[in-house]
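WARN no homologs supplied; continuing
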Amino acid sequence: MINLKNVLMLFAFLGQISVLCAGVKVEKNINYTEKNDERRQLNVYYQQDRSPADVIIFIHGGSWSSGKKDIYWWLGRNMARKGVVTVNINYGLAPENQFGQMGDDCAQAVKWVQKHIAAYGGNPERIFLMGHSAGGHLAELINDDPRYFKKAGIVNPVKGVILNDPFGLDMEEYMSEAEKDDSYFDFLRTFSKDPAVWEEGSPLHYVQHSRNPHLIFYGAKTYPAIRIQSARLQQLLTAQKVPSTLHIIKGKKHVGMITQLIFGGNQLYDFILDFLKTN
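OK structure emitted
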């Protein structure tokens, strides 16, 4: 797996550029738990005069061991300019945290959004989850495994799920069959060496609980595991009569699937806005 940090940090310095153009406002480093911990903080991108608006909570990737919300300021800005309140979140990373804690963090962030997003013009009844790579795994995990929102003390409020090249939908399958390379051993810090834990951390093992619409993208040149498992998720949802749409993006590799969204005119934004409009 490519470490997204090596590519996306190239753009991070641009985060100093004002996002106030086109009426976009941003409030940064909001604690979504009682602790003052930068790994449990979020940024909100919004237009004060657009209310009530759909809300997207974006969960970043980075192999569960790197990445941060601020790198994706351009996603928040671009979505807010299109009238969608966007919340970029941090969560605990490996090796200090394993996937269960990451899922708890993400669920707590959703809880905060549900309670507070109206103050930013967002509609708490129109919350969508979006994630890339490991962030896609976490979005699908907390959506499908009912333990996460139950532990957070809320009923799942997610209106729909947007997955951009999600990695790890079936970690049990991946860890059982993958080449034992550097990435594999990196993933052990998040999922341990125990196959039972791999299964527990695999969203596809809980997909029977999913009832909300899905929008799924993957790159035609991305990792085989992503192509196989994304298609399987779409098939399982269809079998359960859960609305789902899958787009295969020509010519795109894994990192390119997220960096293309730096450009506000990218076709994925049209797919996302259509998904929000129809759901």
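Confidence is low (pLDDT under 50) at residues 12-20.
OK
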